[in-house]
Structures are given as structure tokens and as C-alpha cells.
Amino acid sequence: MELTFLGTGAGVPAKERNVSAIALDLAQERGTTWLFDCGEATQHQILHTAIKPRKIEKIFITHLHGDHIFGLPGLLGSRSFQDGTSLLTIYGPRGIKEYVEVSLRISATHLKYPIEIVEIEDGVIFEDRQFIVSAGKLEHGITSYGYRIVEKDLKGALEVDKLKKLGISPGPIYQKIKAGGEIVLEDGTKINGTDFVGPDKSGRKLAILGDTRFNQKAIELAGEVDLLVHEATFGKEDEAIAYDYFHSTTTGAAWVAKEAKVKALVLTHISSRYQGNDIDALLEEAQEVFSNVTIAHDFYKLQMNRK
Ligand SMILES: [Zn+2]
Ligand SMILES: [Zn+2]
């Protein structure tokens, strides 16, 4: 699991920061990539990385402001040219379906792969044997969602050394032992499978939130995650402006992290008014509230290891 920040600016593209998009590399877990938001020129940013559009399996759109979706039709079209054939699922607020369908139809873009567009509401929006993704409505000028991504716990490893000591050699029986339950060996000895399986490895949790002002739902979505990605369009002195424009400040985001008891916080969606040393100042004011915080920059990568 590795995050790559493809765009970390707010509102309009800037030389230093492109508009919003984050890739979650799940190559090891499921051989795919998930994308969160797709601002203009996201596909150009992808060209500077090892991400392959044909491997993108799901795109989660937080909200329909242009800086989060203007790169979507182009990316969908290019995925076709780059031999993308597998199903792509797009999740987003009501209106995302019309936006994608109209863009593709009017530009005569014919995709060579199936797409599924899911207009979401609060609650679980995706679940399989590996992951549960839920969404929650935040507070922004238009409907904006946050996503909570929870990896399910992995079964512990089989303690092979212990089995070998008992003279149980590798074979189909190992599968049975790993499944737990009582097993009768050839010599009549009974063993309990669970005695030979290490503790479960707990799954990783992260929350990636769309644009929002400080609110309770954000804290709920981020509850005890390993990593929270939160917007910080403004510095702490612009609390009132942030509130009026339905955005967050550095300290507001840090408070969410603190109240939600997250392990780490990454700030993104930084206004282009902050340059150079300003970024250090933004970081410091966030650190006053929550110490384990980073301000992302374009192409910033973050590995999420299993504990
Ligand atoms: Zn935005
Ligand atoms: Zn917005």
C-alpha cells in the first residue's frame, strides 16, 4: 500500500502544485491502483510515475468541483488507448454519472472497457474479502464526501517450525491446520489448528477526505486510522475565511486528527498563496496541535506498512 500525491494544490493548477489527485497503489494486495479525485492534468502527472492507467480499478471522487474532476474524461479516454480492458468503477456524489456520460458522448469517446458509475450516499459503498470502503458527507459548498478505507485483518501465518518439530511435514494438511479446528493425525494424535497459527495481522486503515470545513463527520470517518489525508487550504490566521468558503485550516485539520486519534496526518489542497517558507510556517502551526503531520507536495509518496 503506497500513496502518491499527484496534485496537492487548491482550486487552480500552479507551477508547484497541480490540482487534486491521489493514487493508492495496491499492486501487492490486488494488482491494481485506486485513484482519489482526478483534477485537470492528472494523467500528465501520472506520466511522471510508474502508475499504469490500465491498472486503475476504482476512482473515488470526493466532490464535483472542477479541481477534482476536470481530468477525469481525458484519463478515461487514455486508459482505452493504453490497452485498458478491465472494468473500471467510479464512485462519486450524485451528478458524477451525468458528467462522465455527457463528456464521453459529446467528445465521441468510445471506451474499450466497461465502466460502472456508482452515485454514493453515506455508508458502506464497497466491500470485498480484502477491503471495506465507506463514505460520509462532509461540509462544503457542494456535496463533498470523505472516504474511509479499511483493510480487513489477515490471518496469521502458519507456524511451520512448530509443525515440523512434531514431525508434520508440509502437504495438504497444512491448509487444514491453517483453517483451524481439530485435526487427527495418522498416528491418532489430535491437534488443534489454532495452536499453530500466529496472531492475525491487523489491516491498515486510512481516510481520504474531500474539501470540507471542520466538522464532526470528518472526525468520525478518520476514527483511529493509521493515516488521515485532510485538506488545509488556509493557514490558521484565516479561520474565518476558511469557514466562509467551506474549507479547512492547518490547525482545523490537525484538530480533526487529534480528536479522531489518528496515527499520522498528511495535509494537502494547499493554496498557491503559500510558497517556500510559508509551508514551514503552515507545518509548524499544525504541529502545535498534532505532532505527526506532513504537508504533501506533488509526487510525495508514502508507504503504509502493516504493523
Ligand atoms: Zn478543491
Ligand atoms: Zn471544493
Describe this protein's structure.
It is a single chain. The protein has 307 residues and is of the alpha/beta class. Helices cover 26% and strands 25% of the residues. The protein contains 11 helices and 16 strands. The strands form 3 sheets. A 7-stranded mixed β-sheet has the order 6-5-4-3-2-1-16. It has a 7-stranded mixed β-sheet with strand order 7-8-9-12-13-14-15. A two-stranded antiparallel ribbon has the order 10-11. Helix 8 (216-221) links the parallel strand 12 and strand 13. The model has no long low-confidence stretch (mean pLDDT 95). Bound molecules: zinc ion (2 copies). One zinc ion is lined by residues 63, 65, 140, 211.
Helices and strands in order:
Elements: E1 2-7, E2 21-26, H1 27-30, E3 32-36, H2 42-47, E4 56-60, H3 66-69, H4 72-81, E5 88-92, H5 96-106, E6 115-119, E7 123-127, E8 131-137, E9 145-151, H6 160-165, H7 172-178, E10 182-184, E11 190-192, E12 205-209, H8 216-221, E13 227-231, H9 239-244, H10 250-259, E14 264-268, H11 277-287, E15 293-295, E16 301-303
Parallel strand pairs: 3-4, 4-5, 5-6, 12-13, 13-14, 14-15
Antiparallel strand pairs: 1-2, 1-16, 2-3, 7-8, 8-9, 9-12, 10-11
Helix pairs in contact: 10-11
The structure holds zinc ion (2 copies).
One zinc ion binds next to loops.
